[in-house]
Structure formats: structure tokens, C-alpha cells
Amino acid sequence: MKKQLINLVALLAIPAFTFAQTANDILDKNIAAIGGADKIDAIKTVQYDQNMSIMGMDMTGKSSVVVGQSARTDISAMGQQITNVVDGDKGWSINPMAGGSGAQALPEDQVKQQKGNAYVIGTELATAKSKKYPVELVGKEKLNDKDVFNLKVTRPEGVINYFVDAATYQLAGAKATVSMQGQSGEISTRYANYKDTQGLQLPSTVEISSPAMPGPITLTVSNVVFNGKIDPAIFEMPKQGAAKQ
Hints:
This protein is of the alpha+beta class. It has helices at about 1-20, 25-35, 35-40, 110-115, 125-130; strands at about 45-55, 55-65, 70-75, 80-85, 90-95, 105, 135-145, 145-155, 160-165, 170-180, 185-195, 200-210, 215-225. Residues about 5-20 and about 240-245 have low confidence and may be disordered. Keywords: Lipoprotein, Signal.
């Protein structure tokens, strides 16, 4: 009888161990929900348009990315064009709304932060796995009334917590505490409106909140092109304030 009880307890314990989630399990299911590692790894460049809205002001933008290396975003706002570029370990910007018309080199901390943008939106956890960044499962919690897994990822630009929908395994959000120019603050991101994008399930809407902005900014991504040709010259810092298009 005693032996039978021990066997019964062992059998009852099996489902708990079988269904226990690990960080790696969640990463794999997230990558599968996107479309698979092979399809993600096949993307070498991505170009897309953005419509942005912040506190009732609408802006448009275009981004060109060489995955893992370079990213350029040109934003049109109030008749002005703002350009942000990161290329390897260097970066520059042109921002007439900040009082300058020429290209200015970005500080090292901003380059480090913006280099995280040189990937396909929604594939951040696939990048974490392929780059072998340390990943820790913090636990399960609620995000906007959804059950999510909280994954703590230590990236080169800092520690970021990613929230994975426990039902779909799609990326639901992220948060990070960043320090720039001697100040620190929390940046939070929400991902929504997943759509089939050339065989990959990717978010078409991203909402970003930052203490550096007067309110959350909502980005709607459209006209996505994978593996199109991108001229490396667009990432070069222009001389004498003449921005290259």
C-alpha cells in the first residue's frame, strides 16, 4: 500500500514538471509564433514606413535597417525633417527642432541605446537567443489584463524585461531603465495588431512611453520590405551639414 501511494504521488507530480515553463521554452515558442528561426535569420535588411502620433500631433517616417549593424530613420514633423542614424559603434542626428541644421555626432550612450533598433520590430527575443544574451524567467504576471511571461534579458545596451503573451507567445511589451546624459528613466513599449508580413507574424502598432517625451507615442508600421538593397552611403555622417537622402 505504501509503495502504491508513493507511485501515485510520483504520477501526480509528472504533469507539474511536464508543463513547467523555462525561459528557453518561452523563447522557442515566441520564435515559432513569429514564423520560425530560419525565416527570421533570412532577413538581412528591412525598410518600412511609419505613421506616428503623439499628443494629437501626427508625423511620418521612413526607416532603413541593416540587421544587427545599421539603422536610419527620417521623420517629417511640422515641416521639418529629423534624421537619426546608428552605424556600428557610431551615430549621428540632424534635428532642426533642437536648434541645429547640421549633422551632430551622437553621444556614446545614445549610440548604445539606438543600436538596439537595428533589428526587425517584434523579433527582439529571437535576437536575444541567436546572440546568446542571458535570459531569465522572472515569472508570470498581468499586462493590460493579459497573462504574460516576464523575461529578463541582459543585452549590451542594458537589462530589458520582455513580456510574452501566455496564450499566443507573441511579444506583448517591454520595459527598460535607461541612462542618457546623466539622467535615468523607464521606457515602456507595447506591441499590438499583429499581421502576416511576408510570412512572419509581426506587430504593426507599437506604443512607446518615455520620461523624455511629453506623452506616449504610437507608431503604425506599413509598407515593409525585406532584403531590399540599401545604399551604405545613407548611414555616413554628412559633412558641412548637408544631409544625404
